[in-house]
Write the structure tokens for this entry.
Amino acid sequence: MDSVPIPVEFRCGKCGEKALRAEGDTLTEDSIVSCTACGANVGRWGDVKQQTLDLSAEELKKRLKDLL
Ligand SMILES: [Zn+2]
């Protein structure tokens, strides 16, 4: 099966690698995302994306706090 590389800064919870891929030809909310390095199932792309957005927002808040 083909896989799609995931273009986000999301680390595998198991091995810590930022090497995720989704199964299938296209990336959809329901695509199953797994780790290329250790093969762990990370979850559905819709959930991973949401977590990544939340993390990015947290990071941004922290950085803003440091600046102010
Ligand atoms: Zn992994």
User: Anything to note?
Assistant: The first strand starts at residue 3 and ends at 5. The chain has a mean pLDDT of 87. The helical segments are 45-67. The first helix runs from residue 45 to 67.
